[in-house]
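Data deposition worksheet. Section B asks for the primary sequence of the deposited chain exactly as it was used as input, without tags or linkers unless they were present during the calculation. Section C holds the resulting structure in token form. Section D is free text for depositor observations; keep each observation to a single sentence. Incomplete worksheets are returned to the depositor.
Section A, Depositor: J.P.
Section B:
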Amino acid sequence: MARRVEPAFWEDKGVREAVSAWELGQVVRLFRQHTGASQAAVARLVSIDQAEVSRLERGRKKIRDRRQLIRWAEALGIPEELRGPLPTAEPSVQSAERKARQQGSVTHVLDSLPSEGSGCLLFPPGRSFPATPLPILAVRSVSLGARRLRLAPGGDMTAWSGVLMRALISSSALSNGLRKQFVIDAGQARRHIREGGPVDIPTAYELDDLTYGILWAAAGFDASFVTDEGLLHRIRSPLLRSDPERLHCALEVPGLTDGSRMLLSSEACAGYIVDRRHHSTDGVVFWTREKYGEEAATWLLFAHKLHYLQQTAPAVPHSGGGRAFCVPEAAVAASPRYERVLLFLAMALMESFGITTWLSVDAGYEQCEGFALEPGHKAIIATWVRADDGVKMAYTSRPGVLRGFAEVSGSASQHSVTAGSRPWQRLVATADYLRLDHLWLARRCRQLASEGTHGLAAPRSRHLSVEGLDRACGFAAKCLAHAGASSRSMYR
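Section C:
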């Protein structure tokens, strides 16, 4: 809540000039002098560290991000009539933002796709699955509507719609002077062809960083699971969640892909936590190790993950507990944009279950074990993501261990770069930190939620599902639309 000061404070010439120029450091300094508030007290108003307030006042930090300025204006209670137009970013900042937006973009992929005829979309390798080729057939389009791109009929498309492996049918069209590429799962075109009707590609399936990331993860996991289907059928067992030695043996089976190892490890750790958790999950704090999109995509696509979230979600949404991620700036810089989108959607999925998410940027916590902490009672340790020493499952009530985990999770919640009292505030801050345009995300998630992602990335493996992905897109679209409406109403 904003800390209000007397109207006379805002009538002061120096204050008005500082607000008019958006010299926020000077405004904060004058605000503190007038109210007697400490830097720590001001920091709590906007959920940042006292050191950040100090840097701001000394001119060591400049704020030009429009969303952050709005947040500060609300916290300090700056009258709307004084705020005026928000500043435009400096040219050097704009250039840096453009460069950040281009980083990891799929623009170069679009240029390599065939304009007509067959080709191949080669997805780059991840950290746990190899490069994945995806056959693609490009056909001409007849017309582009608001929600559908109609394709020209052809014999090649009829043949491709019957392939058993994952493949795509694509087409391009001009929209607002820009050529855009649209794709659909070839198997999804089969029904339209069998019914003798035209084949349409939903415009929601425009190939961009959102849909490319979904296809990249779905194709990678599908390839792993289909390859290992026989092995998984033989070694996959509920006993893996209660017998670490059995799990270790399963993970060492010759020929097992890294993607399948992720599945077995994830299922075992999830089951281990569920079996040992307290009846109520309200107030439980989870520490998760996913920091890249490939790891986060397991929440969106692994079928068992959705059930796990349902079992561990608080009965009362956002009731004190939560789930903390550790994603230092170096990890953000090293991730292409499509992976950052997947990480964002994983956090949106958790928020949709009433699970408060925190995001720590402290690289010192990167190697912390994954855990579920029932404060003052016990900690359930379940680590599989980037577990160099192998999957670890254990639980403890030792006071020293509980205090250590409480310190880690407390730091994450108190110093989260995505702090906010509501899900939409946290998701907007998450998008900002991950260098994602939340207005673009709002539009694209709304389109995908309306259409559903099954026609884009229908799973071939029974271990995968797009139900969580669809839920994440729908919740993200709702939250980000609320954020946009709030920003517009503030300056009417």
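Section D:
The chain has a mean pLDDT of 86.
Residues 222 and 461 are 6 Å apart (CA to CA).
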